[in-house]
TrEMBL record:
SUPFAM superfamilies: MFS general substrate transporter. Its main location: membrane. It comes from Sulfobacillus harzensis. GO terms for molecular function: transmembrane transporter activity. This is MFS transporter. The keyword Transmembrane applies. One of its GO terms (cellular component) is plasma membrane. PANTHER family: INTEGRAL MEMBRANE EFFLUX PROTEIN-RELATED, STAPHYLOFERRIN A TRANSPORTER. It is found in: Cell membrane. The chain crosses the membrane at residues 28-47, 53-72, 84-104, 223-240, 260-279, 291-308, 347-367, 373-396. The lineage of its organism: Bacteria, Bacillati, Bacillota, Clostridia, Eubacteriales. It comes from the Bacteria. Pfam families: MFS_1. It is a multi-pass membrane protein.
């Protein structure tokens, strides 16, 4: 084991100091962020009309994020990604500190709305920069390993964070978990300050609108990108409404917040295990592996809806975590290797936009749908729908049989076509 750990720091992505600082900063902020969903959910549910407020507060963060994503992607391609990430970390630390203060002082949860909106806007600029900076920090051959390391960190944070947040929510209150998240963003900012990307964006004579159009041109000409993005446009509203909104409510009515935190932590354990596997495993057909693995995410929703025992839910959560990690690493690696660096954040912003645009609808409609048809019925149907939609892109041969070499070749062909 010591030899493996030593090799991680002496070869590959972690051997580069710029990626190490970025990696440390992400680790710190991800740990804090791993506590927030559970801490915030149960803090809001304890307030008056909290059951109905939860979905709206989540939507208040997602909606401005979706609206601003395309602009954020263009800005991330136009300016230094490392500086954008730094300023976003500082801004997120301030907003999370404000939310923590509201929760801890017992102030009306309605004051969370403007801070949630601000968080969404900040994320719209930081997310494309964060996804796009990896190829600038490591060699192309190390991109998948870098993504696997980042996924392992995210998994560890999600494993430790929800369990800690669940205990805090059940004892002294979830506001302290959000306060830790705020502190983590400030510490992460100090780490990101040491990141200096080797390349600098050249002068851009074109407007941001023209840059958006160029990003759309690449996105729209790649069926392997927009078909999978289209699947997530349906899947994400289902999962966010059923798992993020209905899940805590069902848990609160049955086995409690502490066990719900454990379930989310075990899901993160599955993420962690699969992330380490992806340090070594490379799929010849990454898109086929990604969507087949992604289908596993529907399992815990079905188990929760059917009402099986908590150990069954835990097993489903582990499987879902493993599938999500494989899919996320394979997908991000495919995008980062198949898209030119100068278009990467824009194309990823279109991917995020398509994937996230329906989430506010899912968050807002989850409670009304559950009140009409039953919480468990909606949860079960959501899990089944997720599995079906995840597998639909594989019906297309161009997605099912596309190899990693084909993806990289398409990026080169596109660049050649522009210079002819």
């Amino acid at each position: 084991m010591s030899t493996v750990v030593k090799s991680l720091f002496t070869t590959g992505a972690l051997a580069r100091s710029q990626f190490r600082w970025f990696y440390i900063g992400r680790n710190v902020s991800l740990f804090g962020s791993g506590m927030t969903p559970v801490a915030l959910a149960f803090a809001i549910l304890q307030a008056r009309h909290g059951q109905h407020l939860l979905g709206y507060i989540m939507a208040a963060e997602i909606l401005p994020n979706v609206v601003m994503l395309l602009l954020g992607g263009s800005v991330a391609d136009r300016y230094r990604r490392d500086r954008l990430i730094l300023f976003a970390s500082l801004g997120s630390g301030c907003t999370q500190a404000g939310i923590a203060a509201i929760v801890l002082t017992g102030t009306s949860p309605y004051w969370i709305f403007p801070l949630a909106v601000t968080n969404g806007i900040i994320s719209a600029f930081s997310a494309p920069a964060t996804r796009g900076i990896v190829p600038e920090l490591v060699d192309r051959a190390d991109i998948q390993r870098a993504n696997a390391l980042l996924n392992a960190s995210r998994s560890t944070a999600k494993m430790v964070g929800p369990a800690a947040a669940g205990v805090l929510a059940a004892t002294i209150g979830g506001g302290w978990g959000i306060a830790v998240d705020a502190l983590s963003f400030f510490i992460a900012s100090a780490c990101i300050a040491y990141v200096r990307i080797p390349s600098r964006p050249t002068a851009w004579p074109d407007s941001l609108v023209h840059q958006m159009r160029a990003g759309w041109a690449y996105f729209s000409r790649r069926p392997w990108i927009w078909t999978i993005t289209g699947a997530f446009a349906v899947m994400n509203p289902i999962q966010m409404g059923a798992w993020r909104v209905l899940g805590p409510i069902i848990a609160l009515r049955t086995f409690g917040p502490a066990d719900w935190g454990v379930v989310l932590s075990l899901q993160a354990a599955g993420l962690l295990g699969a992330s380490f596997v992806m340090l070594r495993v490379h799929f010849t057909r990454p898109l086929r592996a990604a969507m087949a693995a992604e289908a596993l995410v529907g399992l815990p929703m079905m188990v929760l809806g059917i009402g099986l025992r908590v150990p069954c839910l835990m097993a489903g959560a582990i499987a879902a975590g493993m599938g999500s990690a494989i899919a996320d690493i394979a997908w991000n690696t495919s995008l980062q290797q198949g898209i030119p660096k100068d278009k990467l954040s824009r194309v990823m912003a279109f991917d995020d936009f398509g994937s996230f645009v329906g989430i506010p609808i899912g968050l807002v409609l989850a409670i009304p749908a559950a009140e009409r048809w039953g919480f468990r019925t909606v949860e079960t149907a959501s899990g089944l729908a997720w599995i079906i939609v995840a597998l639909l892109p594989l019906a297309l041969r161009r997605v099912r049989h596309l190899t990693a070499s084909d993806i990289h070749a398409q990026a080169l062909d596109f660049q050649d076509g522009l210079t002819e």
